Prior knowledge:
Layout: E1 6-8, H1 16-25, H2 33-41, E2 45-51, E3 54-63, E4 68-76, H3 85-97, E5 102-104, H4 112-116, H5 133-138
Parallel strand pairs: 4-5
Antiparallel strand pairs: 1-2, 2-3, 3-4
Helix pairs in contact: 1-2
Amino acid sequence: MSGPLTWTDALEPIDWHELAELYRVAPLATKSPDDLRKAFANSMFRRFAFDGERLVAAGRVLADGVDVAYLCDVALLPAYQGQGIGRQLVADLLECARGHKKIFLYAVPGKEGFYASLGFRRMTTAMAIFEDQAGAVTRGYLAAD
């Protein structure tokens, strides 16, 4: 890190191709710049972190303003992991979502401990439908039952 990070929730400074690359290398997923633009624009809350001009972290929350919020698409460049930036990103997004009765997320397999340290607990009844069900099983997101 070259200096203090700049945090924003504004969409205007975002290079959507750079964000797509961040998600690819995080590694989180392959997402198109246009899909990311639409997803972040339709999210109630979002946060981006810049190191100078370089986008290093991003995340968003889908929410209804009262009952349910869904923390999603939390990504951090690998070179910036382990420095507390991801923790700050999630803390900021949780603060934005404060007041919702439930805050959900699904984590990249292997990151459950990180989210548990922030107060998240495993659900016993969560279920999902993925566009690629077999791929979601292979990647560890769905139980193979």
